[in-house]
Specification:
mainly alpha; globular
């Protein structure tokens, strides 16, 4: 269930991102924000109900929410841009989407690297046997 929700939401976010970049559909600024909040709420409820923790699915959901936030800021830039003589609204929206999209992907990759290095440093595997192994090593010494 969690994988299905995260995959559908990521497909929706990537499709919306591409449609905005090609100027086919530029949604109202609140649409991506409401979509991201409803996705997060649905994901949190289903995660709470199943009581499972999958790091790959969590990472995909965080990236999807970042894309929705980038879409929100891009549509705000398109809606409120006033200096048409200098730069057009379409160009400033594309610039905002590309730069913030790259920043969002970069920050997600940095978060993944920090999380994996923390797990390696602390020797956390995420398996239930790792706790027993730690207790066994403490008793041996």
């Amino acid at each position: 269930m969690l994988i299905t929700i995260s995959l559908l939401a990521s497909i929706l976010a990537i499709t919306g991102y591409c449609l905005m970049f090609q100027e086919i559909v530029i949604p109202a600024p609140m649409f991506p924000l409401i979509s991201a909040s409803s996705l997060f709420l649905l994901y949190a409820v289903s995660k709470w109900a199943r009581k499972k923790d999958s790091t790959n699915v969590n990472r995909l959901v965080v990236l999807t929410i970042a894309l929705f936030i980038v879409m929100f800021i891009g549509s705000l830039a398109f809606k409120f841009w006033q200096w048409e003589q200098m730069v057009t609204r379409e160009f400033i929206m594309k610039l905002t989407i590309v730069l913030l999209g790259l920043l969002g992907v970069y920050l997600n990759i940095m978060y993944m690297r920090a999380e994996s290095s923390y797990r390696k440093k602390r020797d956390i595997n995420g398996s239930p046997n790792s706790r027993k192994k730690d207790i066994w090593n403490i008793r041996k010494t």
